[in-house]
Batch of 3 targets.
Target 1
Amino acid sequence: RTTMNVPTEAYVALSGVLFAIGAMGVLVRRSAIMVFLSVELMLNAANLAIVAYARHWAGFDALAGLTGQTVVFVVLAVAAAEVAVGLAILIAIFRDRASTDVDGLAEVRL
């Protein structure tokens, strides 16, 4: 049985592409929900890079691989909390204004 060994550079390149797509989504999109999705894509791109580097360094030190996975777990937990709070705020704003347009939310005062 042969195994395919994907180089770390491929994972990091994919992470960079995903991060760029997320950054463009934050800059271009007008819907607050799409901005949140783009931020999540950027966080997952960073997680992919962290796991790729942890996998790369795990060959040298077993603790490095475990540390990278722990950091990713913490980032995912923070991202989940951010989504929960962000969506709760968006629902409250949508009930009041019936729109989630980011440009229209600039003058919102709660």
Target 2
Amino acid sequence: AKSRHNPAIAQIVNSLDRPLIISDEIPGRLLSFAHLLKPDVQLQLIGKTAAPKLSSGFSNVFLYRASDRLQQQIVASNSVTIEPAYDKGWLFKIVPRSLNSPRIKVISNK
């Protein structure tokens, strides 16, 4: 089942203030996830060539089923790390890198 984790992931995201979900997953796979989200959750779909700059207008920013390429682009073009937000994968939180932590961590979703 390609959407088996979506209800649990949606519950995590829906419980937070001003969440943004970034993904480069194919739109068809996002549909079953998107209908589980509250109306205030924003989705940002990224094309295969785009390297997004992160907006400061969101208090919680996540990657949903993001490719390794997208994860690496976000880490390289922003001062952030990526941490697991769901124990089965698929959802990763983008966290501002602290000044005392120079290490950048990219978590593969494979």
Target 3
Amino acid sequence: LAKTFFIAVMALAVGITSANASDRRIRVHNMTHKRIVELYGSPIDDAKYRYNMIQEPSQWIRAGDVRIADIDDGSGYCRYDLLAVLANGDRAEKLNVNVCELTDWWIYEN
């Protein structure tokens, strides 16, 4: 098994208005030195991550890049667990996130 390293993850919530409360898109900021090759968002009541939003290498989030991720799965839920997997297997996880309010997710290496 590959070693799992802890990655410091910081989410920055920006002011929310009622007009965008149903917007489930977030900006993923890759502040690491590695590509993000997998990105998941699952409702908090799901036991595991089911859908990788990155389907091909052209969608990888390169080091220093920012990508918009649409977390909306049509369920109407706002609370999700988020997971980003880096090219070397390191993982960044943010649990019980209100994606109806969170607009940015900053991912840093430890």
